[in-house]
Amino acid sequence: MxxxxxxxxxxxxxxxxxxxxxxxxxxxxRLPGGSNGDEGEIRLSFSGNQFYISAYINKQWRTQEFDMxxxxxxxxxxxxxxxxxxxxxLVHKFGAGTLTTTMAPITVSGIYSTPTTAQALEFVSADAxxxxxxxxxxxITIEGLNSSWNRISQTLETNGTTAVALTTNLTRLDRWYVxxxxxxxxxxxxxxxxxxxxxASGAGAIWSTVPIAVFPAGQSQVGVYSxxxxxxxxxxxxxxxxxxxxxxxxxxxKRDYTSDVTTPFTGxxxxxxxxVGIVGGYSLQTAAPKASFIGPCDIGxxxxxxxxxxxxxxxxELILKKT
Length: 323
Fold this sequence. Notes:
Layout: H1 4-21, E1 27-28, E2 42-47, E3 50-57, E4 60-67, H2 76-81, E5 88-99, E6 104-105, E7 121-125, E8 137-145, E9 151-157, E10 164-165, E11 172-181, E12 196-200, E13 206-210, E14 224-227, E15 231-242, E16 248-255, E17 269-278, E18 281-294, E19 297-305, E20 310-322
Parallel strand pairs: 1-2
Antiparallel strand pairs: 2-3, 3-4, 5-20, 6-19, 7-10, 7-12, 8-9, 8-11, 12-13, 14-19, 15-18, 15-20, 16-17, 16-19
């Protein structure tokens, strides 16, 4: 037997599917009883392990019987997360850093590089044990946007304190992590030995760091995400946490048309939301996806503190649709 919750979920799934073909259609809890309906009207009923969908088409009712096993009862967002909904994907992003009285991106390094052309980058560790045959990080994986503003992932083996060039130049770098280690990590021993850095080639400007204090995290913490070309993103949730004894101002920005690199720029940087005087924590979970970010587009958090310094972390979740 279908529970009331299952019946509601089936109606929602059918409504979502029907709306693509006929946005005016609705699902009703009754079968046609001999009376006429509206063209395209859909009706639904349940009996035992079966449910029945009827549609009024060309002045007559057409009914189809379905078994319980014929419909996937997983929540829609879970189906997206499992890659079962073509064209949609979920992105979970988090970042952290030390806020000062100067506005800066919420990342461990306080930096998020946004060049107008793809840049040659390199990786290096502060410790010789982070090498392909060492006891620390043996391999890292880097995610970002290439010269065409498309999302790519690249993996390279480490070489300790000797810099290793990334295989593909990047316009954006918003996530990287240790993907192979020479140590079976524990609560007292992490997967890398030294502080890790990605920087411009030739020991140039730092793009991102993974420190070893307080613990070797093995993962970047970048509170920014760059939506690739050909995708549209919408915000689902966001969470902000600040030292409980400090008050922070946190800004959620976007910059549209990041691929427009010739002045005058159509991709102006714009404030989307601002949280003033956050103490402790702040959480937002929308009833429906919020805003619309058309790729390529930078979105993310910047923040500052009124006095001194404060640790701050952000988490946010997006749903992406391939356009």
